[in-house]
Each structure stands twice: as structure tokens, then as C-alpha cells.
Design goal:
mainly alpha, two-stranded antiparallel ribbon, 71% helix
């Protein structure tokens, strides 16, 4: 049985990127400001992320994973480190194989392992992941905005429109 997820850059709209960056930055700031409310913040982030994925027509498995992880965090707050580490592990796989973000995918795996190894600092690891992910998305957004009027042909020739 073969399972394939195909997410290309062309499928991600500008609005989706902006919403994703704002959601991620807000979550990172709230996590750093209120680490004692981590189960509410992380659960809310995952639910909002899943709903955003569903609204922007991502594949069902990709949209369902954050919703299930967020629900588990709300129901069992003591499982935050393992639930979020599992989410980051799967999210890292998606980044490695679908988005072609190998560097961020590797960082995501490292953060997932660090969360499992040191569950007492889960809030800071989650905040670090959120900040790294948001900054990466902002850099991509800026690069696309900067190269807005250019296209590259298969020969490597750049056409300016």
C-alpha cells in the first residue's frame, strides 16, 4: 500500500502563508509569556492549524493530524510533551518529503527528540520551533515577493516581466 502526500509551493496562497506566520508568531509569544498555560496555547494552536489546513484544502491526513493532536492535548494535558513531539515528528517528515525544507525538517526532528528527552522544558522548545518556523516562512515570503516579476526557464534563463 502506497501513501502519497503532494504539497507544492503553488498550492500555498499568499493569504495562507500570512495567516500561518501570524498564528505561529502569536503562539510563540504566548508560549514564552505564559508557559503555565501551555496546554491551552498548544492545543489551541494545533486546532487552529488543522482548521486552517482544512480551509486551504490540504489533504485530509495533513489537516486531521493537528486537530487530533490538539484534542489529545486538551483532554490529556499531561501528555503535551509526547503529543507535540509526535506531531513535530510527523510534521518534520512532511517538510522533508513534501515542502523540500530539509533544513527545517531536520531542526523539527531534533526539537521533537529534545522534547521527549527533557519534557520539563517543553514550552521553550515549542516556542523555539514556532519562532524558527515563522521566521523561515517570513524569509520564503520575502524571497517570493522580491522575485515577483521574474520567471526562470528550463534552460536557466531568467525572464523579467
Amino acid at each position: 500500500m502506497m501513501f502519497s502526500i503532494s504539497l507544492g509551493e503553488k498550492q500555498r496562497s499568499k493569504e495562507q502563508k500570512i495567516i500561518n506566520v501570524l498564528l505561529t508568531l502569536t503562539t510563540a509569544v504566548l508560549t514564552l509569556a505564559f508557559p503555565n498555560l501551555l496546554y491551552l496555547i498548544a492545543g489551541g494552536y494545533l486546532l487552529a492549524l488543522g482548521l486552517m489546513f482544512a480551509a486551504f484544502k490540504f489533504p485530509g491526513a495533513v489537516a486531521a493530524l493537528p486537530i487530533v493532536a490538539g484534542a489529545l492535548i486538551f483532554i490529556f494535558p499531561e501528555l503535551i510533551p509526547y503529543t507535540f513531539a509526535g506531531f513535530l515528528g510527523f510534521f518534520g517528515l512532511i517538510m522533508l518529503f513534501s515542502f523540500q525544507l530539509s533544513f527545517l525538517g531536520i531542526i523539527t526532528f531534533i526539537i521533537a527528540v529534545l522534547i521527549v528527552m527533557n519534557p520539563d522544558s517543553v514550552a521553550y522548545f515549542i516556542a523555539f520551533f514556532m519562532l524558527t518556523y515563522a521566521i523561515s516562512n517570513l524569509i520564503q515570503f520575502y524571497k517570493q515577493w522580491k522575485n515577483k516579476g521574474t520567471k526562470e526557464t528550463s534552460d536557466g534563463e531568467i525572464i523579467i516581466e
